[in-house]
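Chapter summary example: a protein plus NAP.
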Amino acid sequence: MKTDTAPATNMKQVVILGATSGMALEIQRQLARRGCELFLVARSAQRLAELQADLTLRGARKVLTYSANLAAVQQHAAVFDFAQRSFPKFDTVLLAYGSMHEQKDSESSIDVLLEELQVNFVSATAILTLFAADLERRHTGCLAAITSVAGDRGRRSNYVYGSAKGALSLFLQGLRSRLHPAGVRVITIKPGPVQTPMTDHMANSARFADPERVARDIVRALERRSPDVLYTPKVWRYVMTAVEHIPETIFKRLSF
Ligand SMILES: NC(=O)c1ccc[n+]([C@@H]2O[C@H](COP(=O)([O-])OP(=O)(O)OC[C@H]3O[C@@H](n4cnc5c(N)ncnc54)[C@H](OP(=O)(O)O)[C@@H]3O)[C@@H](O)[C@H]2O)c1
């Protein structure tokens, strides 16, 4: 098992919404090595039990789990109640779940399109609003969510997923401003393509970023005063600045 030196951190009790995601798995390992306490939420009770055992072995001081489908807003109250009762001093919340359907499926099926918006945007804003109010009341903590570089500009090949992520980034921007007076940090995390189960069917996925490296950037952002918007790997900040400057008359002709 790889070890890394753990810098001092104020981050002690971390809630992970979407604990079975490929990126979350790496983040949780790094948090466990720092001795953090974790509250993990995901759909599969069995995978949560496996994670609880694994992360405890890796050094997590405590691992609580809760099985719920976070895309279903009606399940959020129970998740949040459990967090308030069993993990009331949480100081960091990371939203890490999401789905990326084939763009063509969202074009031919309104159900798929709406599900993509529900998972990546609607449900995300609902659960973040619950946790935000708690941190705001306590005048402490950090709220972070994984959106995507895909949200920076609408592209032919994935604009439904991209628009959900772009809307989530806008939501986080407003939430950041709302929570600033309370001293609560809000971090928008925008990864470029990363090697996870979400992308492993793609032809060029071997060239995508290593999730361990991306997780390192994310953990560093969570534990330090960091930019409000994190591009990871960092090169994507420059790539997306260039992409945003392509005139629309040219951009609409590009097939990527
Ligand atoms: N991989 C990339 O290239 C990339 C790039 C930019 C941003 N992102 C974003 O990064 C985040 C983490 O993704 P990942 O790459 O780690 O993907 P992943 O390994 O496929 O994980 C996706 C996570 O979302 C959950 N999920 C998927 N569909 C769901 C649904 N309908 N209802 C509830 N939960 C659902 C999954 O739960 P189960 O385990 O129960 O299926 C899993 O925890 C996502 O928000 C993704 O959009 C990914």
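Key point: Confidence is low (pLDDT under 50) at residues 1-9.
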